[in-house]
Every structure is written in C-alpha cells, then in structure tokens.
Specification:
- With 543 residues, the protein is mainly alpha-helical.
- Helix content is 53%, strand content 3%.
- The protein contains 26 helices and six strands.
- It has helices at residues 16-23, 26-34, 49-55, 59-69, 83-90, 93-101, 116-122, 126-135, 138-142, 151-157, 161-175, 183-190, 193-212, 222-247, 263-273, 277-280, 328-354, 363-373, 375-404, 408-412, 435-445, 460-463, 469-476, 498-501, 503-516, 529-539; strands spanning 287-288, 293-294, 300-302, 307-309, 314-316, 321-323.
- A hairpin with a 4-residue loop joins strand 1 and strand 2.
- Helix 2 packs parallel to helix 4, helix 13 runs antiparallel to helix 14 and helix 18 (363-373) packs across helix 19 (375-404).
- Bound molecules: zinc ion (2 copies).
- One zinc ion (ZN) binds at residues 302, 304-305, 315, 322.
Length: 543
C-alpha cells in the first residue's frame, strides 16, 4: 500500500473497496480489507461494497466479502434498496440466487414501496423474475408500490409483455390452487401411478382370460403355452420394478437445516462453503435457493417433489416420482420388461386368432370375425398396440441416454450448463466414458458415478484472464459507479430512459470484451469469474 490512505474517498464518498467491487477484483479487495479497509464503508448514496457488486453482477465478489469479511448482504442504501433490489433491477440472476441463498429479504420495500420483484418487472428481466417467483409466495406478487401497482401491472405498464404474462400466470396458479400445498398440488404428487397400475393389471387379466384360457377350437400346445405365460411373467416382473421405482428415494439431497433466526449459526457453515469448489468456480446455478444447499453438479430441484434430486432425469407423472440416480435402474428395467412383455403377449394374441381354423379367408371378413368371435383378444391387441409405441420410444430414448451417460434434463437444457461446454463452447459431456463403460456401470452398479473424463482443456489461461478497467469506464461514461439512472426508476418515467434499457445487452457485450481484450495485470485473479459471467450470459437464454 506504500502509505496510501486506505480510507481515502472520492467526491462521492467512495473508497478503493467500492471501486474494486465494480470489476469484482477479489484479490484487490482482500488486500484492502487486510490493510484495514472497512467492509461496511458507505458512500454518499449509502452504497456499501455489496451494493456496488450487485449493481455490476459481481457474484463471486459478493460471496467472498460476505463469507469471509462478514459484509451485510441485505443492508439498505439511502433509498431503502438492498443489494437484492439492485441485482433484480440489473437482471443479474446469479447474484439474485446468491443473495437469496444468503437470506436476503425478498419483501423489502424501498422508499417508493418497490420490492426487488417490482424492479425486475420494471426492467423486464424475465430470468430475475423467474428466480424471485420460484422461491416467493403469493404475497410477493400482490405487493403494491406507492403508486398502487403490483409487479405484474408495472411490467404491463412498461410494455414487457412476456414478464407481465409470466407474473400474471404465476398469480393465477396460486389463485386456482395449483400450488404445491393445495389440493391440486397434492393430487399432482399422487400422479398417474395408480392409473397406470390399473391399466397394466386390466390388460394382464384380459390377456390371461382371453388369450391363454379362452375357448378355442384349437388346443394350446406346450410350447405356445410356455411362450404365452412368459409374457405374463415379464409383465409381472415389470410391475415389481414399477412399484420399486415409484416408492424408492430417487436420490434426494438432504436439505440444509439452519435456523434462519440465528444468524451466528450460519457463519461457520458459510465459511466452510467458501471452499466449495462449485462456488469458487462460479457455478452459481448449483445453489438451490429453496433447499438452501450447494447441490452437486448434475442435480436439479424438482418443483413437484420440492427437493433437489441427484442426477435428476425428469419427474415422471406416470411413476409419480422423480427419476434420478437411485431409481433410474428400476425405471429402465420397468420399461424394458414391459416392452418385451408387450411384444410377447401381442404376438401370442395374434397367433391365437390367426390359427383359429374357423376364421374366413378374406381379410375383411377375417377382421370382422376376429373382433366378434374373440372380443377379449381384439381389445387386448388394441390396447397393447396403442401402448407399445409410447413405451418403446421412451425405452429407446432412455437406452441411448444411458449409453451416453446423460440425463433427459441435461439433454433438454444442455445450453444452460457450463459443465456441458467444451472449449469453443461446443457441446461436450465430461461424464461420457464410452458406450461400454457407461452401460456396464449402469447395468451392474445401478448407476454411473459422476467422474469426469480426464481431458486437458485449453481454456485455463482464459479463466485467469484479467479485465481491462477501461472497458467499464468507457461503457458507463466517466464514473462507472454512478452511471445512468442508478437512483431513479419512477414508475412514471417512461421506459426508464433508453440507455439503461439495453443494460442486459450491454453486459453481454461487456462479457465479450472481457474475453477478447484480456490485459493481465499480474494479479492472477482466478476464481473462475470469467466462467461465471459466461454462464450468466448463457443463463439469459430462457429454458
Ligand atoms: Zn432444491
Ligand atoms: Zn419430482
């Protein structure tokens, strides 16, 4: 520091720590704080370093100063706005996730009566709204600001149709009682498993009654009998798998039990999680704000089960359970056994009616004869045929995913997951160990361990790259801390002026500039900040 004053302020009362927050320079902040800089220093607007970091989406920075230096993640500025307000206004979904994880208060109203959700709605930040609504309650959607408007009304007012539609829809879901704890929610948890169970049982009874023990002019041979009964055996084995799959724990991840009232208890936990490699490398999507955990990679929160599931595949309404690491084997066995059972029982049924010596020779009258002479067999065949294609397609899709060791969820959202990106941004699955190993691990052990393929990636220097300070200054005018309409967002100011409207877009440009004009300043700031911001840009792509 060479004798410079660590507490020196500029004309707006900002210290060096505020400035380090702009670009998220963690090691600079670390140095300043070690030299005695105050983590809660406020400028003329009442901003602390956490506010500034939230304004610029410096999620890793917020995490560091909160976890290590006990910065307050939920302190209001002079206008009553917390860092969560700012992150919501700027649309930094990862920062919102982290702040909510740190127990920031969603319902805080600023001097204009606006909550973070109001701000996200005003700016039309759909992803920010999604994250806030996901953990929120109905009340959050109903809060009115000083002008008497709800977040949905504000979004409509500002012509953000998609956001207004989303918020209205979220409210309608609560109104019609489709929430997790309502009657409909409970009904959706029971799912369709009992129905599917009944369908299979009815089909089996029809099959045994009409195909195996039905009245025919021709007697059943021993070979045909064995063949016909093997279908029943396979279907029953499939039913056992179906029962196991729907009752088994799909791989729920334990919820973090921390008392929300006792702040002190949280700190050792947070300090411990400071070392969490997922957070150090900026994988903020691994934070579950509902379960309050840092979940392992490949897991996802299921809204129906309201839990995080390891190696989340999908929530299957037909099984009334999530399909995850611990019950995927049973799920696949159920599908495979039923497909084979349907092939065998279907063939047996066809053989039965084809071999009937009384059946007429012409095709049309043969169909007519079969339907009326053997109605049980005909209706069984119709059901069998109808179900077969659905189950067979699902089995083939599952088998191909098992062979590649990828989940249905990963297939659907591959764009959103940083770990599925190789150098150059192309799709790359690090858990794919080749068809043979993937299949043998799955079939013998029942699951695949999340072991990444060892492969030297060439983007390490990119991760370590530093960002030019000038990109911030040139982008935001003279002072990067107080650009544009930082403090006024009146509902009456039309479009909140055009400059900040393009904030989301410009932050993308900003990210781009980070990657292209790397100017190493010799501080060796790793911590995967670049990858975090890359992930942020990706996360802008809706589901
Ligand atoms: Zn969760
Ligand atoms: Zn589920």
């Amino acid at each position: 520091m060479h004798g410079a004053d660590i507490h020196a302020v500029d004309h707006t009362g900002q210290t060096a720590l505020h400035w380090s927050a702009v670009r998220g320079h963690i090691q600079v902040a670390e140095l300043l704080l070690k030299e005695g800089a105050k983590v809660d220093a406020t400028d003329l607007y009442g901003y602390q370093a956490t506010h500034v970091a939230a304004q610029y989406g410096q999620t890793a920075f917020i995490y560091h100063i909160v976890a290590k230096w006990n910065a307050d993640p939920d302190v209001p500025d002079n206008d009553g706005r917390s860092p969560l307000h700012w992150a919501a206004y700027k649309g930094f979904a990862d920062s919102i996730r982290l702040l909510l994880f740190l127990d920031a208060y969603r319902g805080r109203q600023d001097k204009e009566g606006c909550t973070p959700l109001h701000w996200a709605a005003i700016r039309g930040n759909l992803e920010a709204c999604t994250v806030l609504v996901q953990v929120g309650k109905k009340d959050d959607l109903m809060v009115k600001d000083k002008t008497g408007l709800t977040p949905a009304q504000l979004a409509a007012d500002k012509n953000h149709r998609q956001v207004a539609f989303f918020l209205d829809n979220a409210r309608r879901v609560y109104d019609t009682g489709c929430g997790a704890n309502t009657k409909f929610g409970k009904l959706s948890k029971i799912g369709l498993a009992p129905l599917l169970w009944c369908i299979i049982i009815v089909m089996l009874i029809t099959y045994i009654h009409s195909v195996i023990s039905g009245e025919y002019t021709m007697n059943m041979t021993a070979a045909f009998g064995m063949f016909a009964w093997s279908g029943v055996f396979l279907a029953t084995a499939g039913l056992v798998m179906f029962y196991k799959c729907s009752r088994k724990d799909p791989g729920y991840i334990n919820i973090n039990v921390r008392g929300s009232q006792s702040q002190r208890d949280d700190e050792p936990l947070l300090k411990m999680e400071l070392e969490n490699p997922a957070l150090l490398s900026g994988n903020w999507s691994q934070l579950c704000i509902t379960c309050k955990i840092v979940r392992p990679v490949r897991s996802k929160h299921c809204s129906t089960c309201d839990r995080c599931v390891e190696q989340f595949d999908h929530h299957c309404p037909w099984v009334s359970n999530c399909i995850g690491k611990k019950n995927k084997w049973e799920f696949f066995m159920f599908l495979a056994l039923e497909v084979f059972a349907m092939i065998i029982t279907g063939s047996a049924a066809i053989m039965r009616i084809v071999r009937d010596p009384d059946s007429p020779s012409s095709f049309g009258s043969w169909i007519y004869y079969s339907v009326f002479q053997h109605p049980g067999v005909a209706s069984f065949l119709a059901m069998d045929f109808f179900l077969f294609f659905g189950v067979a397609v699902l089995t083939i899709v599952q088998a191909s995913q098992i062979a590649r060791n990828i989940t249905t969820n990963e297939m659907a959202n591959s764009m959103r997951y940083a770990y599925l990106r190789g150098p150059g941004g192309r799709f790359r699955n690090p858990f794919d160990h080749g068809i043979r190993k993937n299949c043998s691990d799955f079939l013998l052990n029942g699951y695949n361990e999340d072991i990444e393929r060892l492969e030297q990636t060439s983007h390490t220097d990119e991760e370590m790259g530093m960002i030019q300070m000038t990109s911030a200054v040139s982008q935001n005018g003279d002072n990067p801390l107080h650009h544009s309409n930082g403090t006024d967002h009146n509902c009456t100011d039309s479009q909140a002026n055009s400059k900040p409207q393009s904030q989301v877009g410009s932050s993308q440009c900003c990210d781009h500039s980070k990657r292209t004009d790397r100017t190493p300043l010799g501080l060796g700031l790793g911590l995967g900040r670049n990858s975090a911001s890359r992930q942020y840009v990706r996360s802008l792509i809706p589901l």
